[in-house]
Specification:
Layout lengths: L1 E9 L2 E6 L2 E9 L2 H11 L3 E6 H4 L6 H10 L4 E5 L5 H9 L4 E4 L1 H5 L1 H10 L4 E8 L2 E4 L4 E6 H7 L7 E6 L11 H10 L4 E4 L5 H9 L4 E4 L1 H4 L5 H7 L5
Parallel strand pairs: 1-4, 1-12, 4-5, 5-6, 6-7, 7-10, 10-11, 11-12
Antiparallel strand pairs: 1-2, 2-3, 7-8, 8-9
Helix pairs in contact: 1-3
Length: about 240
C-alpha cells in the first residue's frame, strides 16, 4: 500500500477541514505549491490534489492546480474537484495530471462515467464520498439514496484507474478509519481502492493495508505531525 499526501485547495490556500465542514477549517497554509514541493522533497512520489472551491461551486483554483501538477516534483499527481464534463478532464490531463478524480457527475450520471472511462481508460478515478455508507455529492452537501458497495459493484466492468472512498464522517478527525467500510469496498471492487478519512497513526495505515487497500490519502495526520512523513515513506511506498 502507498500513502498519498493530500493538498486541498480553498481560496488559493492549502487547507484541511474536519468532517467535510467548511466552517471547521483546522489547517491553512497560504502557499500550496511550497507545501506540495515539501512533500516531494521528503520523498513522496504521488500527490492527491482537490479543488474544494470548484467542487462546491464557490470558485476555482485551476491556476494553482496547474502550477502544482507542473512544478510540484511528483511522478504521479491525481486531481479532482468540480470535474463535471469532458473538457475538465481534458484540461487536467493536458496540464499533466496522471489521473483525474471524478465524483458528483460520475455518481449522478453513470452513463457519462462509462463513456469517460472508456474514452480515457485507466486515467479516471471515481471518488465515492460517503457518510455512513451512503453516497454524498456536490462537495458533501447532498446525500444520495445509494450504498457505496452497490455502486462499486455496478461499475465492475469499467476501466477505471481506481475507486477512492472518503469516509466523510471520519474526515479530518484523526479518530481512526472506517475499517469495516473499507474492507467491504475492497471486497466489492475490481479495481484498486484508495481510502481517505480518519487516518491518525501508522497502525491505522497497517490496518488498511491488511484489508487490501491499495493506497491511503492522508491529510490532517501529516499536516499536524501525528504521522512522521519519513517513517511513513519508509514503510508505505510505491513499488519500483
Amino acid at each position: 500500500m502507498i500513502v498519498i499526501p493530500a493538498v486541498d485547495l480553498r481560496d488559493g490556500a492549502c487547507v484541511q477541514l474536519v468532517g467535510g465542514e467548511y466552517a471547521d477549517e483546522r489547517v491553512r497554509l497560504e502557499d500550496p505549491l511550497a507545501v506540495a514541493r515539501e512533500w516531494a522533497r521528503l520523498g513522496f512520489r504521488r500527490l492527491h490534489v482537490v479543488d474544494l472551491d470548484a467542487a462546491t461551486g464557490r470558485g476555482s483554483n485551476a491556476a494553482t492546480v496547474a502550477e502544482i501538477v507542473r512544478h510540484g516534483g511528483f511522478d504521479v499527481v491525481q486531481v479532482g474537484g468540480g470535474v463535471r464534463d469532458e473538457s475538465d478532464i481534458e484540461r487536467l490531463l493536458d496540464a499533466g495530471a496522471s489521473a483525474v478524480v471524478v465524483g458528483t457527475r460520475g455518481l449522478e450520471d453513470p452513463d457519462w462515467l462509462r463513456e469517460m472511462a472508456e474514452r480515457y481508460p485507466h486515467e479516471i478515478i471515481l471518488a465515492a464520498d460517503v457518510r455512513e455508507r451512503r453516497i454524498t455529492t456536490r462537495g458533501w452537501t447532498q446525500t444520495l439514496p445509494r450504498i457505496v458497495t452497490d455502486v462499486v459493484e455496478e461499475l465492475a466492468d469499467l476501466p477505471l484507474a481506481a475507486v477512492m472512498v472518503t469516509a466523510v464522517h471520519k474526515e479530518g478527525q484523526m479518530q481512526g478509519t472506517d475499517l469495516p467500510l473499507m474492507e467491504d469496498v475492497v471486497d466489492a471492487s475490481h479495481v484498486p481502492v484508495f481510502a481517505s478519512g480518519g487516518v491518525s497513526s501508522a497502525n491505522d495505515l497497517r490496518a488498511l493495508q491488511d484489508r487490501g487497500v491499495a493506497g491511503a490519502i492522508v491529510g490532517m495526520a501529516l499536516y499536524t505531525g501525528a504521522l512522521d512523513p519519513r517513517a511513513v515513506i519508509e514503510e508505505f511506498h510505491d513499488e519500483d
